[in-house]
Each structure stands twice: as C-alpha cells, then as structure tokens.
C-alpha cells in the first residue's frame, strides 16, 4: 500500500534475518507489502551498518528501521539517512555517541552473561545447551533447540565497537522492553529507552526473543510507529 513505508528489519547477535519470521507474517497481515530483512555479517559495527545502509539505499520511498538486540546499535549507526522516517527498538541496544554494546552490558550485567563462550577464531557463541534458557525461555524447547543450533555468532570484537552519531537524536523512535530479558538486562533497556525521548515505550512480559514469542504485539508497535512516522511526510 502506497501509504505505508517499507519496513526494514535488522537482526541482532546469535541470529539472522529469519529471526523475524513471525513478525514478517504479522506485518503482511496488516497490509505491509514492502518488507525487507537485512542479513548482516556480524563482523563489525561498521560492516553491519554499511550492509544496512546499502539495503536502505535500494528502496524508493520512506523506510522504517526496526532493530532487535544488537540490531538496535546498527540502526542507531546507520539510521540517519534521508528516507528513514523512524527507528523501532525491540529489546535492543540504543547507544549514545561513544558507547558500545559491550560497555552498556557491563553497566548492568544480564542473567545469561555466563552462558557465552568464545571460540579459538574470535567468535562469541551462546552455549547451545544454554540457548533456550538464555535467549528464548518463553518459546518451546524445540524452538529453542533450533535457534541454538542455527545461531549466528558475532566476532567478539564487535561488542566493543562504538557509535559515532546516534540517529535517534534526529529520528523519531519507539521502544519495546522485555521484562524477562536475560541477554540485555531490563534495567539497561529501561535506561536506554528513557533517554531516547521515544514516542512510545511498551513493556512485554517476554524473553530477549520477543520478536518470536510476542510477534503480534511487536508487529502492532511497528505498525503504530509506521503509521505515525509517515503522517509528518
């Protein structure tokens, strides 16, 4: 529909574009015919932001960027583009200039921090046997098994990459807090969302994987953001 922006979904650490599968279905049901999901290399913030910028540059018309987890840092870094009309953070990092996901994590260490394990090549994994309880405890054990086996590990150095100019200082934003998040502490999510000056903040009783466990509610927030963002055009 011409009055709806293109939704560009940006995944986080330990997953890929397919983590958005349930949200994509819900957005399609709401009439969104132009939806994209970036597949990032998770090799550095600069690489991931550039991949996102390139996708946005291919789109004619307004774009709403939606980031989950580390994807929030990516949309913060990449979001100050002319056709981006808003930013939606789903249980996500929303760093300020000079901040990194790793630095924010240390401010309030999440419950599952001990379940991360680096490998000899510099990639950081969630221990597969701990993935369900760490990342998506409100999904079925079978869904957790699949997510754990198919996880996409980031280079650990990416945690230390800092934001240069945060897009949320120029673009309207919306934020979803997961009250049962074990990967980003809910306290950090509350702090980051408060300083955004977000147009709306919602809290879901959900794990870090709210995009999979609460897709109806997440899609509703995205839809509300999209509707409001295009009003000012």
Automatic annotation (TrEMBL):
InterPro entries: AB_hydrolase_1, AB_hydrolase_fold, Sec-Metab_Biosynth_Hydrolase. It comes from the Bacteria. Gene3D superfamilies: alpha/beta hydrolase (3.40.50.1820). It comes from Paraburkholderia haematera. This is AB hydrolase-1 domain-containing protein. Residues 7-220 form the AB hydrolase-1 domain.
